[in-house]
UniProtKB/TrEMBL annotation:
Record Gene3D superfamilies: Aldehyde Dehydrogenase, Chain A, domain 1, Aldehyde Dehydrogenase, Chain A, domain 2
Species whose genome carries this gene: Rhizobium leguminosarum
Protein name in UniProt: Gamma-Glu-gamma-aminobutyraldehyde dehydrogenase, NAD(P)H-dependent
Gene that produces this protein: puuC
Active site per UniProt: E263
Coiled coil region boundaries: none
Record keywords: Metal-binding, NADP, Oxidation, Oxidoreductase, Plasmid, Potassium
UniProt EC number: 1.2.1.3
DNA repair is among the record's keywords: no
Pfam families found in the cross-reference section: Aldedh
Length: 492
């Protein structure tokens, strides 16, 4: 497969336009943005820098398509056919999509293949299968009345997504929104638009009617803000940082009170007890739970809490694994951790490492920029011993930095685990069943892994609690965001 990847890696990527109403259109202002590849810091192509006027055109196209009903009123079995076809086309072009995405955002290709086209195809298939299996309800009323609860599409859904896994996260939003019969306006992140533009082309090829999926690329502060403030978007779904999430809630309050669902960041605790069934396996999986995609993973296990009796040995083990991780060219199948998505993000990560040192954290390994001669953005997998008060124990880095904290007993582990405003992911490693269940109950998070980290499939929801968000992607629960409930109260 490496030879195929090598052939694709230098394909010329033509300048990209916006996809509105089934047509490729340049922004009304003609403005473009450069796409810089994090692999080598070289310009890859340009994307459209959409303004409020383009967002308005996209929303109008989405609304017109919704009202026309070709998709929104299509028989569920018809929608299902097209969603299945989209999944097939994603799989047909999987390698091309993965390489394009990696050139854009730097994720190692071994991970991107599974997590991007692989996962996106599985998600389209999952919601294709759901289309004709989600029912309305009949209420348990008195004999003289019939109470029906209809599920209706909400209308126009806007999705704003981040750069770390654009196709996977994009599909988590687009597929259930389309399955429910809505029209969609998608805004990819500045640093990862290319694979989603290609996905729009595949959706059109699969027969999705024009205007049902629109893609506007551009800056968050311009196109994103225009989406947030638009008066004719019914639901806004978002994955990204807490700061932007707060803004979106404000935009909604200032405009049409659109429903806003947020999937935000985390500082996820990964708790290792001395009685874990296999400490070697725990160390390996925990290392990749933070260092895959250079730590640019919302559910990354960035805080490693280790029972004091094994703390030193486990910290040494995981540092040794970190030192051996092959960081480098993300388009080599042998690379285990690719590039940091942008120079700005790399600076941010290095800033966190510098601050940790200045606060007295002990650096076990890493901490620096590497492979600078490539022109790309790479950082060593980094491990620090920290105390719970330090910045690194509290703030999300979104980079390859692991913080290790010892604990003495279960109560202290839970107390440290819950001592952040976040509540996204977590894990507990133990061979004691009762302890595992107590930790599942005690840790405040949307997901608690037991004796593993990551990997949950489409059958279960992914969502945060507390300041990690208020919406769920994946599973049938995600469909609720894209439906309105309507009651029919019928006197018999
Ligand atoms: P970000 O919040 O900077 O950007 C996300 C998106 O919001 C981008 O498309 C951006 O253009 C847009 N945006 C920026 N400013 C905006 C504004 N004022 N109005 C409207 N839109 C705006 O986040 P990021 O740097 O792309 O991603 C990293 C963050 O995402 C991390 O905090 C990470 O934890 C989080 N994340 C969460 C999940 C999850 O499922 N919970 C998954 C992946 C990433």
């Amino acid at each position: 497969m490496q030879d195929k990847i090598d052939k694709l890696r230098s394909d010329v990527v033509s300048p990209q336009s916006l996809f509105i109403g089934g047509e490729w259109r340049v922004p009304q202002s003609g403005a473009t943005m450069d796409v810089i590849s994090p692999i080598d810091g070289v310009k890859l192509t340009t994307i459209g820098d959409a303004g409020a006027i383009d967002v308005d055109l996209a929303v109008k196209a989405a609304r017109a398509a919704f009202e026309k009903g070709t998709w929104s009123k299509a028989a569920p079995a018809e929608r299902k056919k097209i969603l299945f076809r989209i999944a097939e086309l994603i799989e047909r072009d999987a390698l091309e999509l993965a390489v394009l995405g990696v050139r854009d955002n730097g994720t190692e290709i071994s991970m991107a293949l599974k997590a991007e086209p692989g996962s996106a195809a599985a998600t389209f298939r999952y919601y294709a299968e759901a289309v004709d299996k989600v029912y309305g309800e009949i209420a348990p009323t008195s004999e003289s009345v019939l109470g029906l609860i209809h599920r209706e599409p909400v209308g126009v859904v806007a999705a704003i997504v981040p750069w770390n896994f654009p196709m996977m996260i994009g599909a988590w939003k687009i597929a259930p929104a389309l399955a429910a019969g809505n029209s969609v306006v998608l805004k990819p992140a500045e640093g990862a638009s290319l694979s989603l533009l290609k996905l729009a082309a595949l959706c059109a090829q699969a027969g999705l009617p024009e205007g049902v999926l629109n893609v506007v690329t551009g800056r968050g502060t311009v196109a994103g803000e225009a989406i947030g403030l638009h008066g004719d978007i019914d639901v806004l779904v978002f994955t990204g940082s807490g700061g932007v999430g707060r803004r979106l809630l404000e935009y909604s309050a200032r405009s049409n009170l659109k429903r806003v669902y947020l999937e935000l960041g985390g500082k996820s605790p990964n708790i290792v007890f001395a009685d874990a069934p296999d400490l070697e396996q725990a160390a390996k999986v925990s290392a990749f739970g933070i260092f895959r995609n250079s730590g640019q993973v919302c559910v990354a296990g960035s805080r490693l809490l280790v029972e004091r009796s094994i703390h030193e040995a486990f910290a040494e083990r995981i540092s040794a694994i970190a030192e051996k991780i092959k960081v480098g060219d993300p388009l080599l199948l042998s690379t285990e951790s690719g590039a940091i998505s942008s120079e700005i993000q790399l600076e941010k990560d290095l800033g966190f490492a510098a601050q940790a040192l200045s606060e007295g954290a002990r650096l076990r390994t890493g901490g620096g920029r590497i492979l600078q001669d490539t022109g790309g953005f790479y950082m060593q997998p980094t491990v620090f011993d920290v105390t719970p008060e330090m910045t690194l124990a509290k703030e999300e880095v979104f980079g390859p930095i692991l913080s290790i904290i010892p604990f003495d007993d279960d109560a202290e582990a839970i107390s440290i685990a819950n001592a952040t405003p976040y509540g996204l992911a977590s894990a507990v490693w133990t061979g004691n069943l009762s302890r595992a269940h107590c930790m599942v109950r005690g840790v405040k998070a949307g997901v608690v892994h037991v004796n593993t980290y990551g990997g949950a499939d489409n059958t279960v929801p992914l969502g945060g609690i507390r300041q990690s968000g208020n919406g769920h992607d994946k599973s049938l629960h995600a469909m609720d965001k894209y439906h309105n409930l309507k009651t029919a109260w019928i006197q018999l």
